[in-house]
Amino acid sequence: MSEAERPAAFGQPVLDASDVRKSFRQGPVTLEVLRGAGFAVAAGERVAIVGASGSGKTTLLQILGGLDRPTSGRVLVAGGDIHGLGEDARGRLRNRAIGFVYQFHHLLPEFSALENVAMPLLVRRAPVAEARARARELLGRVGLGDRLTHRPHQLSGGERQRAAVARALVTQPRVVLADEPTGNLDGANAEQVFALMLELNRERGTSLIVVTHDTRLAARMERVLTLEQGVLRGDQPIGEAARR
User: Fold this and answer.
1) Predicted model pTM
2) What is the C-alpha separation between 188 and 202, in angstroms, rounded?
3) Span 147-155, mean pLDDT?
4) Which of 20, 50, 55, 226 is the most buried (most CB within 10 A)?
């Protein structure tokens, strides 16, 4: 991407996507979903990606997170080429540098809230006591300190999504990728969950990249990008008022 498209920040971007392309074969037809999308995100920055349904926003987010491979192009995460790594190394980079929040919480039903949030730390072989302590601290931070032993079916929709946010942040990632994180919540719970994400973003300096249809949510980010015809457009700051 050009220098003009880079965020105005010192140091290396947390995430830097260049000329990302993705196509699919549908019988004799090649469907081009991404046609050279590119942007960079600075430490602690908040970026919204908007666009029509079917425009490729989720595909782009999965590529940024190393969950899907681009047809061509490059994605650097914390300075590492995530698609230039083998499967194991890519998984380690995801676990170290990226948190994910989805429209559906994806909590494991057989485990408690505490166990779900501690899981990413246990995957990286952190000591059990340390993983549980960090999960307990973060669940308290998101208002679930009295729900540690509750399984997902014992939590409300808003509580499950707050637990999902805690799980995304427990590894202290450099960037959180969120795909419609408030899409399944009513207005009050959506506001609570997103206010929490913004608060933790400010406190911990974790960058946020959020795919959303919610214009109110997008307006509270620092930049709003529109995915149109496979290319990201409108890379413009939206002003100090939206940061509050």
Assistant:
1) 0.82
2) 21
3) 93
4) 20
